[in-house]
Amino acid sequence: MNDTNDFADIHEIFLEECAENLDVLEAGLLELKTGITDLDLLNNIFRAAHSIKGGAATFGFIPISEFTHHMETLLDEMRNENLQPSSESVHILLSCVDVLRAMMEESNGGAAVEQSKIENHINQLRQIGVGVTKNEEQVTSQLPTGLPTGLLPTELEQV
What is the pLDDT of residues 9-19, one digit of tens each? Predict the structure, then answer.
């Protein structure tokens, strides 16, 4: 087999795995939309996004990897209980699944996805995450200053 055939085979496997993970992601988000928010469900959704991101990065589909990273970040905040899933956040994530499907089709020779559509979805994901960042900043700013570093003077000399 030559390199072109090998790449075509790898590309096909990636597309199949990505389609399966997109189905898992979408089904999980639809279940989340019903109000079910158990940790197993959130972990399954997160893992599907993480697998898409990792596979895309591995095979050089950087725009797909970067887009999925934004979804993954928001999902991670949900599973770590820093952000409660809302109808708005689930709706945006479901819309992102549609964008990912279109990006996958584009990678397989389909119609190009408008960059403005991708950027709009990233901005929406960031807006949802802004509340999380503000809450973290608030907590961080309330921490006492001058906390010990954990290293004693004798340990510092050894470093």
Answer: 888 888 999 99
Distance between CA atoms of residues 155 and 32, nearest Å: 49
For residue 80, what is the DSSP state? T
Domains of the chain in sequence order: 3-158 (1.20.120.160)
Residue 20 in contact with residue 68, Cβ under 8 Å? no
CB atoms < 10 A from the CB of 88, how many?
11
pLDDT in tens, 49-104: 999 999 999 988 999 999 999 999 999 999 999 999 999 999 999 999 999 999 99
CA 12 – CA 29 distance, rounded (Å): 25
Nearest alpha-carbon partner for 79 in 131, 109, 40: 40
What does the radius of gyration of the chain's CA atoms come to, in whole angstroms?
Answer: 20
